[in-house]
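Quick one - inputs below.
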Amino acid sequence: MQVPPSAGMDTFPQLLIRNAREWGDRPAYREKDLGIWQSWTWREVLGEVRKLSLGLKSLGCKEGDKVAVIGANRPHLYWVFAAVQALGGIPIPVYSDSVAEEIAYVLGHAEVRFAVVEDQEQVDKLLEMSEKLPLLEHIIYEDPKGLRDYDHTSLHRYLSVQEAGQTLLDNDEKLADDWFDAVSVGKSEDIAVILYTSGTTGRPKGVMLTFNNLVVAVQNANKFDNLDENADTVAYLPMAWVGDHVFSYAQCLTAGYCVNCPEGPETVSIDRKEIAPTYMFAPPRVFEGMLTHITVRMEDAGKMKKKLFDYFLNYANQVGERILNGEKVSLFERIKYAVGEFCVYGPLKNEMGFSRVRVAYTAGEAIGPEIFKFYRSIGLNLKQLYGQTESSVFITSQPDGQIYADTVGVPMPDVEVKIAESGEVMYRSPGAFLGYYKNDEATKDTKTEDGWVHTGDAGMFLENGHLKIIDRAKDVGKLTDGSMFAPKYIENKLKFFPNIKEAVTFGNERDYVCAFVNIDLVAVGNWAERNNIAYASYQELAAHPDVYKTIQSHVDQVNKDLSEEPMMAGAQIKRFLVLHKELDPDDGELTRTQKVRRNFVADRYAPLIEAFYAGETSKHVVTEVTFEDGRQGTIEATVEIRDMDTHSTKAMSATREAAE
Amino acid sequence: MTVMDPTLEEVKKRAEEREVLLDLENVSLSFGGVKAITNISFNIKKGEIRAIIGPNGAGKTSMLNVINGFYQPQEGVITFNGEKRKSMKPHLAVSQGIARTFQNVALFKGMSTLDNIMAGRATRMKRNMFWQMLYWGPAQQEEIEHRKKVEEIIDFLEIQHIRRTPVGTLPYGLQKRVELARALAMEPELLLLDEPMAGMNLEEKEDMSRFILDVNDQLGTTIALIEHDMGVVMDLSDRVVVLDYGRKIADGVPEEVQSNPEVIDAYLGVSH
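Output:
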């Protein structure tokens, strides 16, 4: 294929052409299929995208059309973005695990005409909702399994769309040039993508990002971490999430690095080990999960191994981070650390697929300081960043060598950050979004006229210039005695314990703070197994007295920590309970990105909250649950509520003494 | 797009139009004085899902054992693919295109999923021991070809994540799926499933049902299954044969069988 000499670098299709020209034979996308890694070079990707783009055009896709993309991380689905953008259309990735109604809402709101989906599951959802989606004309699917007998009048196979495009190319030589010309017309202020935020409250909103937003933000990020075409990353987070769109599409096209797609969601850890990415991103829960997994497995290891493991991890804890930060470390310590690297850290990192990682990011939620320190001490350059969909991800990030577990770093290049009088974090940046799609009111509420965007997060700058996020601004409340109540801040402290998977605290305009706790089935289940505790279900394990005792000790520890912080000391947890069911996105309790929907949970478990403040010690509740196939059922349980002692702060006890 | 449920007549007509794959005529099997199967005749047609149901001890598993040659019936004629069967051994059944899964999972527990499924292709490997010991050359070539087939099955049944896991450590539902994979690796014309959903939870049952339908639909494999979950049987199968105390008491499409008084009696008991 002839790659034209110049096409600008404003839009992603233009960048794709540049990559095909500069790094034509370098791998751009890899996917593990039938057990073997298949790769596509940049030149091949350009060919695939062009075929698809022309095929879509022949189906009637034109400038301004919205095309939904629903499925797991597949190279073929990433190519849809470029193929649609090349035609002047706007791709709209949608969370693939959403139920049919949620998908229908997004597709209806975005006025989608085409949907490119992964498999039968998604096709079924769309067909089920076809009455609500009169504008949806064509569905294109990638995996034909199970779809042979479907009515194919408006249903097309991905390959056959590409073949149609190829046939057109073969018949008309001019078409190729026309396509390249059309691509070079693309402007940086055009809308590149609309990403629907999962939203902890209300309906999802469509965030419109222009090519300029994404390209500039991403170029700065690439410079910040020296990312170039030699990097490798694994794409496994939902495609509809801005993080994945940036890491696996925008950044990949801009820097020219290679994106690797795992076989399926369950094989991610195996595939990551095989690929050994150099650049990676994972939300804190992934890091937590891996650490829990390792700890559990080390319990089963031989004595010798376990000793070696404990000894060297302990040692890493002392010097590992200093070495990583480039501080002064004696030669002896370095040699000893190298021995540890050979015996423990190296194999450990290899097992997790971190052998080649240069930069790893975590974001989205606060990460436990212990977990953060663990990964850094074994030599993984794990950093935190802060961002949101509206900012094309990057707002602040931790520069190499300036890493603090409780901050999210300093503003990225070209980004201005300020703290509003209300304590809310605001920013102004080239990556700041254009507006919400068909929702000017929300846009006005979020983005000021001179370009400052409300993040909705309460935060502060520490003396070292790093930003610290406390909580969602609207969630920060006050107890009746006037002390500050930051629910997430407390919940995160609870969640840092491996036994606690999720926690929800209540206390705004109440007398004291109460907490729901969700146990972590892996960690607690493993503990139960070791202590010969039999249990038949999550519910039974959660209600076990010994489990309660452990959780109680964790809550006590959190109270102790809180008592040491003058601002937070008033918000210690007075009462708690261990919830009888896991919070689940299918029941609407969590968002698709696993964040707690606080108000929804409060409504749903209102009887339990009443019981908290009525002083009851146990409460019988019936909870409706939704199974994976959409059927409804109920869980009944009697939940025990426990009281906690609070710790007095040093400051408070001092005043009390003075009063006496 | 709505798929209309076909009427009873349509279902029957469709069943009749199909070609017979396996025909059993007056088959009887006894162990000493115990009559396991008495004078049973029925057939299995190409491309259908045929369920064999009945209360405990009705002779269902014996029936499957007769079909795949593990038991030799004392009386009766079995015709498979138009050919009358004489003496029969299970490995011959495999080479003729009959594969099965077992009521109690019968996998090699210490071997990985991949190796278990590869074992299913053993009868199709042509190279002799010499070449296989040498490893390089034609045996390796053959291994690669077979591995490709196996990978397709792994993809089909969505078990990529346990490819390298020893099957002994897998949950029961997945072991059942691996067993199905191994049976499919033989590329059978007729697949015998002995209680494929026994001991599964609802979600696993749904998955398994979907896989059975997919196997039938996409690979065109004829399936005979024994199952106790009536919901599954009625939804999946094209025709059902009902056994009780080694005799056939009913045979037909699910709707017919369901309303047959004798079947109801056998399952619920008769009031005395």
